[in-house]
UniProtKB/TrEMBL annotation, chains A, B, C, D, E, F:
Gene Ontology terms for molecular function: amino-acid racemase activity
Taxonomy of the source species: Bacteria, Pseudomonadati, Pseudomonadota, Gammaproteobacteria, Enterobacterales
Protein species of origin: Candidatus Pantoea carbekii
Pfam families to which the protein is assigned, alphabetical: Asp_Glu_race
UniProt protein name: HyuE protein
Family: Belongs to the HyuE racemase family.
């Protein structure tokens, strides 16, 4: 039985709960699951500075997870903070949710659009498209210009409605076959929007779970040859001592 | 219980048997499997002409499969012949094994190398790298310069040894973190080479099975919006009548 | 005296007649011409599935043409179906009309726009741009959202007017120096639109004729070294026996 | 009857004679020809400075040619000096021989190699590949490290033999289907090397003649919309007065 | 004390004066400055033909400058005419103002927009973006559709206001962090627009001065190895004799 | 008088001293300098994990520097760790040394090679090339396969000799006009190697100083519009409290 850890890189419990809900409805029987958030850091991630801080929180949980016998990790923030560093740290495979959503979209549509929170986050997503190779597959990126936390505190449903209207606009204008929801805080909307729009609306959290289950099923782990080799042994000092 | 069809685009029973063996050792309990080969066409696929012919055989089996209630299809030849056409034909997701291997490799290594049969086939793989977005992730492509059937009739093990030597060379020279075996006829070698080399050696057939199981688990199907919409209704004539 | 075969990949006689008209007004004295359509297959080509079927019809006519002593072939559908396979099949040069139009446009303008039938066909044209190297030369692609056959049955002239209006819009907005008509069914409009707009409006059929005449004049044939080498000898079965 | 001018951008009569020989053996009956060289400038072109000087000589001849009723121009130096400026200056189409060779090569082979004189010239060719869109079609560039004039004063045939040996190496190593001779001074070797190697060896001069004859046959001229519009009227001073 | 020459490639004294003003307000104490314009050529530069002519004027001044002991050169026209040729001609570093503006923009913003004079000039800027590597950093290019001289004869301030309005539009729509003024004639506006918009508006002239002062401070000169090696010695004839 | 802070992202005092030496020999009179290293973290940086840790140390010093009135920052490790996050954190410009070296190299040579420590670090440099836009300008990357600390403890001079030999090989083989030393620990070698090889050997530390002095001279600061806007105010917890 494989054991997967899903890490919310921010410290927000409400988003962590959303992630937990999505993950539990996605896992295959036979997969054990642990959903955690960063123990310290930022309550939400908007921009490179937030990502830099969140990365350390991710790496701590990767390390903790390894001690618990975790077989594979998911980083559940759309900027995939700490993904490459995490791949060095352990042999267990690590998947980011932006990566997962993008990979998945290209398997069922030629072109996709991304709906994100703030423009500054979409500029990070744009770098990921380039890094992963999917720049030509992305037709357009749209931001609803709401901060991440507006999604978790959306009692009136106005954020939800903004995302829905954006999806409708994408379908009518972008010539994209699929839509990616560019924030883990949007994850619960994917299924209902898929149905309403009759077009795949992809959430990276569930996509990452399936990709990771697949890798574990294949017995594949992160390559330790050259690029993702373990960090060279060196003594970390100060606040990083717990990462030794 | 999901029902997957794996289509060997050529008519070669020996390769079909290899594929069958790999698939059966890969599927998750709860997945029903059907491995078929093209009913007519070419005994092996080396080049664009062979692919063009094989594509029709693939589409026939996609159509047959649909009648049988297939939930997802795999095209088990490294050139992914007919992949885009098949995605139009049915709503069920369709995965190619080159695509699957390349996606998988980028999730556990930054860079990969491909080992293929003939140079002309690698030139097709090069186009796929560009189409899928992975040109920058592929460090090098190496051909063993043996036709596909040399793999199925390899009683002396010399083809196998050639592949093994090529893998060793890749590990020492290419700075690639993973190796992709660029022919379904090589699929059975992936696991043992992974162990011997201590570096992921990826076979697209098993990779495709896992990706497809994942998509089915997510309830995602090929987008019918714009690019992969069903073919417009029109009457096919002549030898294509069975595709109506 | 060189002998050129122009193949309409679909079975539509009306489009074949249009192609024939364009070709006859284009050939240089000293070129013998044969215009044929696929003997079997699809009446029009919209999408990858149609292309896959049409490809076989193209290859049959390539093979037939070879027996008749054809010196060079043109594939007269804007998706260039079967182009790479055809190049393997014979030594005689083979030119696609999308390819021809794109090459020609870049020789008289820095940037061009494409006007096509349906969005799904333009998504195929986009792949060709990437394959041929002209992605950066194409400013925009516009679809009139009419199926191919609306062009051949255009008694009211409304399709023609839609194309004309689209050309005017391109000239005013796209900063493109040339326009490519993205369907052989539009071929007859190129000359009059060029005059009206005072900007080159390019039809791939006539462009392909000239390119092919040029190659024949140079004595150049498709390279049989590596990528386009003849298909390896193998016995084709079933409906493909006539391709043996 | 169309009237083509071929401009050797340098002042070297020996190269001009080579070009003249190639052109005369290439033109179709019905094409009138004028081969000229720059009236002033550099005796051979190696690098950007030489190109800058040669460009003026080219533009002078373009202007002169226009007065003589020239229908189309060819710039017969592999760096295509002055090509874009010349396209502004006249409505008649203008073709560069590097451009012509590269376009032609991609129509009969997937990939080509270039054999040039000096490394610094190949670095210019590399920019042209990027500008024209063919970077991915060029497998390798090889310099024989001889200046241009070594080709015209090759009594011993040693330059010719160096080129021949380089072609053989390309065929055995590069996986390229075609070879481009990257200097007009090599033009006469193309046909014999094509025969000896059984692989297309392309000379840009003859390729340009055929492309230009084709454009003239189509009645296509350089687009005057936006990018290649005529130079704005302004008074040139000093040594440029003859360009007014 | 380093000695910098700034070359206005056109013969316009008004633009030269603008450049002079910008340069003098930018240089560091310890830098001696010489601002010149082409002695002959075109009064303004719009398009490739104008650039070809201006290039010779630039090269003459580069050569003159060398005799005067100039340590570094700036080419002060946004198309960077003659830049690569000038780098061959002397060992002293040479910087173009388009190049300088683009480099500078990417150091303080992820993405920039360019505001230019005519569309045909922006098409040249687009090639420079590709050549320098910054295509992905440029969000959009906007032309005010006024010729260069409208900037120098802008008594009513209407050209200035057009540029200002365009900047405001960029800030509101383009998601660009910086704006590049794409003409040396706009150079004086950069500082005030930066202040008004609270977003960096970059002028290439001052940017080039600082880059060049930096290179001189590092003791770095143009590499003479391979690509920018000195022109091979050859006798220039006719109007180019002064370049010998 | 401008005040620059140079941050060594690792905690190694020997490398910090090297950087200090280089910086002091580079600054212009009128620039005040502060060279610091990370207060906590890793003693050397080899790979993504080390970079993630070092990034926090960089951000702490950026924040400290701001309190001290620093006008501009340099991140003196060749992977440019924390560069984008630092640009969000303050308005003062921030320059990375890889960025600085690459920008500088393209201004004096068409193509450059990079000499680095370990292959895994060069794979990070490869991503930077893509991010900054210089992939096409880099001919080759060579690693000496020594860890960073071998450079600081190089009493025998064997590391230095390895670098020198590698430079000689680059000059003879790569057709690169310049060499970039890909580690701040190599910075002191640049000048002497430039002299010995008669080809620019570029060290990013000094290059960054000059670029930063230039930006400060222009009065340009990091754009706060969209991408690099200040981090949204949120309360950092745990070990990150000092970053609040």
């Amino acid at each position: 039985m494989s054991f997967i850890q899903v890490i919310n890189p921010n410290t927000n419990l409400s988003i962590t709960k959303t992630i937990d809900q999505v993950v539990r409805s996605t896992i295959t029987s036979g997969t054990k699951i642990l959903v955690v958030c960063a123990k310290q850091g930022v309550p939400s991630i908007e921009g490179h500075f937030d990502e830099a801080v969140a990365t350390i929180g991710v790496l701590e949980q990767i390390k903790n997870g390894e001690k618990k016998g975790i077989d594979g990790h998911i980083i559940a923030c759309f900027g995939d903070p700490g993904l490459l560093a995490a791949r060095e740290l352990v042999r267990a495979p690590v998947i980011g949710i932006a990566e997962a959503a993008m990979h998945t979209a290209t398997l069922i549509a030629k072109r996709f659009s991304i709906i994100g929170t703030l423009s500054r986050n979409l500029s990070i997503a744009k770098s990921l498209l380039q890094q992963y190779g999917f720049s030509n597959h992305c037709t357009a990126m749209h931001s609803i210009e709401l901060p991440v936390l507006a999604l978790t505190e959306d009692k009136s449903g106005s954020a939800r409605e903004k995302i829905r209207q954006c999806c409708i606009k994408v379908k009518n204008k972008d010539k994209s076959g699929a839509i990616i929801l560019g924030c883990s805080g949007m994850a619960l909307l994917a299924q209902e929007l898929t149905k309403e729009l009759d077009l795949p609306v992809i959430d990276g959290v569930s996509a990452a779970v399936k990709i990771l289950e697949g890798l574990l099923g294949l017995g594949l782990t992160t390559s330790k040859h050259v690029d993702f080799d373990f960090p060279l042994k060196k003594s970390l000092t100060g606040i990083f001592e717990n990462l030794n």
